[in-house]
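EI: anyone free to look at a 375-residue chain?
SC: sure, send it
EI:
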Amino acid sequence: MNFELGKDSFSSLFPFFVAFGPDSIIEATGPSFQRLLGHDPVGEPLDGLFACRTPSATLTCESIRDYPGELFVLDLKAKQISFRGQMCCMDRGGCFAGAPWILDEKDLEQAGLGLEDFAINDPIGELFTAFRAQKAALHQTHQLSEMLKERNERLDMFAASLAHDIRNPLSVIQTGTEFLQGSDLDLDLPEKVMSLIKAIHQSSRKANEIVSALLLLANSNPGGVEKVPTKMEDLVRDCIRSFQSVIEEKNAQITVESLEDCSTHTPWVQRIFDNYISNALKYGGTPPNLRIRSEARRTRFGPALRYWFEDNGPGIPRDRQDEVFRAFKRLEPDRAEGTGLGLSMAKRIAESMDGSVGVESEPGKGSRFYLELPA
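SC: here you go
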């Protein structure tokens, strides 16, 4: 067979080619094919080298011409490797242009082949190149994941340590200012000094609340959370009792409907409920009116329970509802004291329990905050 492109150019395009004459005797082969076979089979009969699996043709020019454009699958007898490619036959002979059909990189290595043996546009070579790239990417992703996990653990430890270190002096300041404001003392301090002591006390209490919230956020990582069956109605009523003085002061009305029980991490749920009740008392109507109920739901993740806290406050515009769950964001800072961390903390710890929080509201119609947990 004559090579109009030149044998070297043809070999670069089809490194596994096999060319044969009109008598089906092999006249030339590609360098990768010779490396695979271990010798140059020039002079050997084509059917002594290959068995044709498909189509139903004999490896002669007369038979091959009956299958123009067909995909040929040839089994290499000496190596138990299949080749897939195209056959063509002319008066002066024919040629098979294909490549080994290997889907496992181990088989590639056992055959003594590498990616350099395949043509640039060969699908097998591209397949193994993609496999190797994917393997390298997965390895790198795993390394980055482990590095990120280690850094997050260090950050959590640092945050917890820092919070504890800050909390101690704050507690001393708070206790000291409470003592100085005590009615049992007869210090006869000037009014300006007493006002300053009161301001220091309020600031230290607020700072302590921020540190407590940050400490909880630092420790609210998914995994390792103990979930226990929880009587949610009892939990809500315990939360309400802790606000009894504020409820009486504001003449607030709180209605608790029958609540579905849930298996959850009780201390975290209590913090979310405390925050919802506190906000309803701070930002609700005059007097505040709060309704607490539960609802069974079906989500794409499975059954869930949603606990609603519905107040009679002024409501939240739709375009600002996402803001309430951002850290240090307060929509009405002049109405009541707060750190701006309560709802962002609620969101973080809800997600750590595979749950979610949210709000539905319209100006003038109150707000409906919820906590949704897996049932």
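EI: Confidence is low (pLDDT under 50) at residues 124-129.
SC: 👍
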